[in-house]
Amino acid sequence: MGLSDAPVALTLGDPAGIGPDITLLAFAARNGEAIPPFVLLGDADVLSARAEALGLSVPIISVATAREAADRFAEALPVLPIDVAAPVTAGKPDIAAMPAVRQSIERAVDLVRKGEARALVTNPVAKSMLYQAGFTFPGHTEYLAALAGGDAAPPHPVMMLVAGPFKVVPVTIHIPLKDVPRVLTRELILETIKITNEDLRRFFGYVRPRLAVSGLNPHAGEDGSLGTEEIDIIAPAIAAARDEGIDVTGPYPADTLFHAAARERYDAALCMYHDQALVPFKTLAFEEGVNVTLGLPFVRTSPDHGTAFDIAGTGQANPRSLIEALRLADAMSRTAEDEA
Q1: Residue 61 φ/ψ, nearest 5 degrees
Q2: pLDDT tens digit sequence for 43-78
Q3: 195 to each of 44, 198, 206, how far by Cα in Å?
Q4: Which segments of the chain does DSSP mark as H helices, in order?
Q5: Which helix (H) or strand (E) holds 227?
Q6: What whole-number distance in Å separates Cα of residue 189 and Cα of residue 206?
Q7: CA quadruple 312, 318, 323, 325: dihedral positive or negative?
Q8: What is the pLDDT of residue 152?
């Protein structure tokens, strides 16, 4: 099977969340939305039960291979079977489902690494449930990096949020705010800049991406009077990246980095911590935002929202972010093919 006709691999996510809902809704919208062929690695019975609860008439078939999934996508939603051990009730997460959640991720990564799927899209998981089941990684991103590394050292994953031309990257991600100044280093910032620059070229087709970097402190430190991280750490990292030929500027005050005129001046903004990047992004692009992991040897995207247990099975879930994640995963993998 050539990569050109390989489907996108979609993981199960937490089956009690809205993953089944948005998967069904995305497939149902495939003709009007021009959605690329995908295969779900999960439990067909869970999908069938959720379709019935939602009043959706979606044909579902179990398939044995990604090739079969690609061939039959036009007629039915293809599922590579992974059984969920316990009954699934929408909105009520169960630790007994977590082995299937992890197996779905692992098998999807295996498909992509073998070239049987062109890209990976992950449905939302509840990290708290995974932790209760013995999961030791901070989140999806770090787990995927470990799987991508195999027996070698894992790559350094970088989170990027994408909504069309609007792209943001948090340098530090899922850590307490009080730990950010300690974790931030010149080396971490420089590596994040380099990975962002390289993958914007590889997966998005930019010839020379324009990167803007925020400060850590209010007013980017106000020349040291409100903090010296900009002087001691951030500016030297930017200078080192510029010495390597990267088009990067900053550090800028974060509160003036995201208005419309400012966004015209860069292709991606790098921020020092999670909420500094994600609050403006989700304010401006909540429904259509896509989470992308840079730095991996394959394409991975995800909806930019969580499991939403409170609305699972109610018909209120919006598939827009998943649809955009599927489209972007397909487009990124094709751009990488053309660049190769």
Answers
A1: -130, 145
A2: 999 999 999 999 999 999 999 999 899 999 999 999
A3: 38, 5, 13
A4: 19-28, 30-33, 44-54, 66-72, 98-113, 127-132, 140-149, 180-183, 186-204, 229, 235-243, 260-263, 274-285, 320-339
A5: none
A6: 21
A7: negative
A8: 62
Class assignment of domain 156-295? alpha beta
Q: What are 195's two structure tokens? A: 């990975």
DSSP class of residue 207?
S
Domain 1-155+299-340: which topology? Isopropylmalate Dehydrogenase (3.40.718)
Q: How far is CA 192 from CA 145, 158, 242, 284, 302, in A?
A: 15, 7, 13, 23, 20
How far is 219 from 231, CA to CA, in rounded Å? Answer: 13
* Domain 1-155+299-340 and domain 156-295 have a common topology: yes
Domain boundaries, the chain: 1-155+299-340, 156-295
Contacts of 302 (CB under 8 A, 6+ apart): 121, 122, 123, 124, 140, 290, 291, 292, 293, 325
What is the Rg, in whole angstroms, of the alpha carbon atoms belonging to the chain?
20
The b-or-e profile of 252-271 (16+ CB within 10 A means b, else e) is: bbbeebbeeeebeebbbbbb
Residue-wise pLDDT tens digits, 157-193: 899 999 999 999 999 988 899 999 999 999 999 999 9
The two three-digit tokens of residue 57, written as one number: 């008439």
